[in-house]
Task: inverse folding
DNA sequence: CGATGCTGGGTAAGCGCTTACATTCCGAGC
DNA sequence: GCTCGGAATGTAAGCGCTTACCCAGCATCG
């Protein structure tokens, strides 16, 4: 309280933004012992606690807490003294202690199936932005395609007492279902659904998106169409397939005229699948792909077969990942509204969390299907004469 | 303890993997009140505490803690009872409480400059894997290129009481330096250095890597070489440039014969820069790029100019991101050892954390330079005759 | 002029753990 | 038979916060 005098005598600086003299590496003036930071805060050290701040400011710890949490009125003068002490001591409140005392942790868990997939990378980034914009921190949990690992991560997130979990798993398995049903925290699904569990979810309208792609090539005049579907674990793959079949049917093309090959959702798989498709007679003039990576593989296969894309064969991807616009020809693809899905998911989970604390009503779980958008680039054209 | 009787009377199931009847949404048998989980654990609920587990197992909370932390000997029979209670109650220990009581949080912060850059995405993924393999959870902190935001995130990570922070910022600014100098937790730098702050760091040997690229095109016979350097904020850009200059000098080519253009590190920037380079007379026959995205842009520019890559102009990228092998021609590029850098960084920070707790010696901070590897693909060839 | 209401701030009770220290229970050694 | 020692367990003291509750001080009002 004695050190504070100096500051009180110079009420020039705005208390909200106290200018702390940049403590030089070597103390400039050894006699000036008052204003040195008592604890340098190096790793080993015991961190500054609220009690030390209170002592320094000459108030009780309750008052410090009130200033920091901004929940109760505090006299401006008192507030100033507290903030000053906070600043002088480099005080950083302990998240764990706060959480234990009843505050929310301000952390959200993000469980992903496979961070190596560019689409999920984009989604993760979008969610991180949204979460950060709302003052929440993300814990990254990457299952790497292993559903056992995902289950373990769910437990871990619960242990960390995250306020909510966003699940962006490609395939929600029974292992998840059981956990999610009795989840101890709020859960919102992104890009996936958990059949039978009443959880809010947002997914792309894959069915209609795939139909968009099919309609596009049909409109260009293609009649012999091939489709490369995704792996069995993917929940959206059958949906997309159904959309394609339906669009073809509307154009009077029976399902048996659609050449279908399955593959893993990567470039190599796409290439192999496309090779199989190109070997068929009659050869398809357009290939609709499960995702953009597969489409890139298809383009490689077309080039390797001595054919031209889009001259001989058109290709349509799905997702519109950054790579889509970089390859040549640039991919015509179906874009998912990643940003909007991320925003919805974060908004929704925060609403649930708030509702849980008694603020706001609990809305019934719902599944939102976000429409997709066709992005036409260079990989599609009219079929060869 | 009375509820437990049912279980004790039927010692058929392995206590390690008890088959819990899938609690139906509507209780099937209202009379069967014994074996139902006392707390469903739905979001609102107060979570199960160690005291409840202790009561159920008929032991003190200390014993439960000992079983769970595995730090003190416990009689096998007692351990069994405790684990059984844990399982029956769906007990999940509280991370915050543990942290407050002195345990490490098991969390690591990962501060990145820009998650949208594919290279950083890869790095983040690699670090996540390493951290997870060692039982640590990652908190994602994406600065999105804004150094103010990064600084705010550093405070936030400190508040969360992470055990350590990995900084993978492209440019460590003075704002960081000041914070890092008095960081309250362990910090290891990945892919960057903080001049003047004694912190361990691992970076790619950019200088030598760039020289590798230059030597490669020189070996192919190129003499008129262009270079697209990165943005000013990038610390590695000048290093790479120096490597190129040095390699050229060894081959007897003076620095003034090297055509240099700067750009932002993305596709559009690379394209613009390459256009400028291609407009020069004499036109360079090889372009060394700051990174793979820039190289992709350069390839686009070459195609747009009616030239062929590698026929007329060779292109070399840097980083070997996944995209590099997908474009055509596939990119010749300099690969950074992302996985190894991630492993080293995580190993190192865990070592520091252990040392802090008195286990193991504190090694002096060091800067490791990981060699790069040249990956030759289709974008480089001998210069036109 | 004393009762009343209100406001800012202090006191202390937890939050759910870990762990130092105390206690109990044994068998071994005298 | 009694003490001693060690292993297993219980007891309780925090860890750093938030917050319910209480109290002092002051202005207002009858």
Result:
């Amino acid at each position: 309280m004695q050190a504070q005098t100096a500051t009180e005598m110079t009420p020039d600086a705005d208390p909200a933004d106290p200018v702390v003299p940049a403590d030089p590496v070597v103390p400039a003036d050894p006699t000036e012992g008052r204003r040195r930071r008592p604890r340098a805060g190096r790793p080993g050290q015991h961190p500054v606690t609220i009690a030390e701040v209170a002592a320094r400011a000459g108030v009780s710890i309750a008052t410090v807490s009130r200033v920091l949490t901004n929940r109760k009125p505090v006299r401006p003068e008192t507030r100033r003294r507290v903030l000053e002490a906070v600043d002088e001591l480099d005080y950083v409140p302990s998240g764990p202690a706060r959480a234990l005392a009843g505050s929310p942790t301000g952390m959200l868990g993000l469980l992903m199936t496979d961070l190596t997939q560019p689409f999920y990378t984009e989604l993760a980034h979008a969610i991180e932005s949204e979460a950060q914009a709302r003052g929440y921190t993300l814990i990254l949990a990457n299952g790497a395609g292993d559903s056992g690992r995902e289950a373990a991560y769910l437990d871990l997130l619960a242990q960390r007492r995250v306020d909510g979990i966003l699940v962006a798993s490609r395939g929600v398995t029974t292992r998840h279902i059981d956990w999610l049903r009795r989840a101890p925290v709020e859960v919102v699904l992104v890009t996936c659904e958990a059949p039978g569990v009443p959880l809010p979810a947002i997914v792309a309208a894959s069915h209609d998106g795939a139909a968009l792609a099919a309609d596009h090539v049909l409109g260009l005049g293609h009649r012999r169409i091939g489709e490369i579907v995704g792996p069995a674990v993917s929940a959206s793959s059958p949906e997309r397939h159904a959309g394609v079949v339906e669009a073809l049917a509307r154009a009077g093309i029976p399902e048996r005229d659609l050449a279908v090959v399955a593959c893993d959702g990567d470039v190599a798989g796409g290439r192999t699948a496309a090779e199989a498709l190109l070997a068929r007679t009659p050869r398809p003039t357009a290939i609709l792909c499960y995702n953009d990576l597969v489409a890139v593989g298809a383009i490689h296969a077309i080039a390797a077969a001595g054919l031209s894309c889009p001259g001989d064969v058109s290709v349509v991807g799905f997702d519109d990942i950054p790579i889509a616009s970089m390859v040549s020809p640039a991919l015509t693809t179906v874009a998912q509204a990643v940003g909007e899905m991320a925003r919805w998911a974060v908004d929704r989970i925060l609403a649930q969390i708030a509702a849980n604390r008694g603020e706001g009503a609990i809305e019934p779980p719902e599944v939102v299907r976000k429409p997709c958008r066709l992005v036409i680039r260079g990989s599609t054209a009219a079929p060869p004469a």
Remarks:
- The radius of gyration of chain A is 29 Å.
- The longest helix of chain A spans residues 338-356.
- Chain A has 13 helices and twelve strands.
- Confidence is low (pLDDT under 50) at residues 1-40 of chain A.
